[in-house]
Task: inverse folding
């Protein structure tokens, strides 16, 4: 009795597995003999492929492939791969009984006896047509979005940059024409100054563009922050309205920074002019400098840094605008007024200098832009 009990156990288990496999309707689960003929067929296979068990058992599994795949020998290749390596996976079109197609994800596993003899192959197939279509749709949407963002950037480029360049060229051409006709020494001097101003502004715009596109290498050196700020003061003499005050406060013993001095000057100018534009006609712009030791809290930077804060008590930045301010050509300024390249230059500069930039702003109260620049160290030779 005992021995007949034991011999029943495997067959009971087998029938339970049979029930389990039969109950699965989302996967086609069936067996093939080593030559590729269908040996068993579950409910899922019938649901997905449309054939009933009695119609397919004994048939070769190439029946489920497209004609082209059959011509290309795909079923045979799959079978060979499974038999030689133990497993084969495949994704592609399969054909239902009614001739319609579905996109299948299939796995073919070799089944061996305990002695190692090949008994057959287990084939599991899923219909992932929906998933594939969703993925394709998502890809198409992404491509479309990318295209429209590119177009938007291009539109802003042509709308903003071309407009600004045109303004500058208008100034240059008009001034040159006037100067050609005039004999007034003093007037000609003024006209030449206008031409020079416009030319310099144009150069500045292309420099910002190039440095953002990283085509211009930065010349890293040792920069004394106080000296640099003094030189900016001179440049700013005519750019700030008389009721806008610039207060500079640098920590005693502020370290020198390892950056491109000319670019840092442009960066600070950009930030100060942004602050000026954020105020009606009066207010205070603060430039604070302090030493700081970072341990990964900002952009995962570590070591000795100098932090420069440019803050204003202007109108602030709306939360929906904030994520976009570093985008090249993004501006909220009137048509032709801003290029939208200022902050993208700031961003490009800090990244290339192995530093970071962060912005905090409260609408109606003001904005603070913080630059983190690597402190200069004697022992590290800087790239030229
Ligand atoms: N200090 C600030 N206060 C309020 N908004 C600011 C401030 N700085 C920047 N912004 C916002 O970020 C946008 C992008 O600034 P960015 O300097 O890149 O370009 P821009 O100032 O518009 O143009 P440009 O620098 O060529 O004059 C601005 O249009 C403005 O909306
Ligand atoms: Mg700006």
Result:
């Amino acid at each position: 009795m005992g021995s007949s009990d034991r011999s029943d156990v495997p067959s009971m288990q087998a029938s339970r597995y049979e029930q389990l496999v039969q109950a699965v309707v989302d996967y086609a689960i069936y067996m093939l003999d080593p030559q590729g003929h269908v040996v068993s067929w579950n409910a899922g296979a019938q649901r997905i492929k449309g054939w009933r068990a009695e119609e397919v058992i004994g048939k070769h599994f190439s029946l489920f492939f497209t004609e082209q795949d059959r011509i290309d020998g795909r079923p045979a290749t799959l079978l060979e791969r499974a038999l030689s390596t133990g497993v084969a996976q495949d994704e592609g079109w399969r054909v239902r009984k009614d001739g319609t197609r579905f996109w299948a994800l299939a796995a073919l596993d070799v089944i061996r006896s305990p002695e190692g003899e090949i008994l057959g192959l287990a084939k599991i197939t899923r219909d992932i047509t929906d998933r594939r279509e969703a993925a394709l749709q998502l890809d198409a949407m992404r491509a479309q979005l990318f295209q429209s963002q590119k177009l938007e950037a291009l539109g802003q480029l042509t709308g903003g940059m071309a407009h600004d360049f045109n303004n500058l060229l208008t100034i240059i051409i008009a001034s040159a024409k006037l100067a050609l006709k005039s004999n007034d020494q003093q007037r000609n001097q003024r006209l030449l100054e206008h031409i020079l101003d416009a030319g310099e502004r144009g150069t500045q715009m292309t420099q910002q563009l190039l440095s953002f596109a990283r085509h211009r290498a930065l010349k890293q050196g040792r920069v004394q922050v106080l000296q640099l700020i003094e030189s900016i003061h001179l440049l700013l003499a005519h750019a700030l309205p008389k009721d806008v005050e610039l207060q500079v406060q640098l920590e005693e013993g502020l370290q020198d920074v390892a950056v491109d001095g000319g670019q840092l000057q442009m960066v600070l100018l950009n930030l100060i002019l942004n602050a000026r534009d954020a105020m009606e006609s009066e207010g205070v712009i603060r430039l604070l400098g302090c030493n700081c030791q970072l341990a990964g809290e900002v952009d995962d930077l570590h070591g000795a840094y100098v932090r420069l804060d440019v803050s204003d008590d202007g109108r602030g930045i709306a939360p929906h605008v904030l994520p976009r301010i570093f985008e090249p050509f993004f501006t909220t300024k009137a048509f032709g007024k801003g290029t939208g390249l200022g902050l993208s230059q700031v961003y490009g500069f800090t990244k290339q200098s192995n530093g970071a930039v962060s912005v905090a702003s409260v609408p109606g109260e003001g904005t603070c832009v913080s630059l983190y620049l690597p402190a200069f160290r004697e022992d590290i030779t800087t790239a030229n």
Residues 270, 273-274, 338, 342 surround magnesium ion (ligand 2) (CB under 6 Å). The longest strand covers residues 283-295. Residues 221-374 form a domain with the Heat Shock Protein 90 fold (CATH 3.30.565.10).
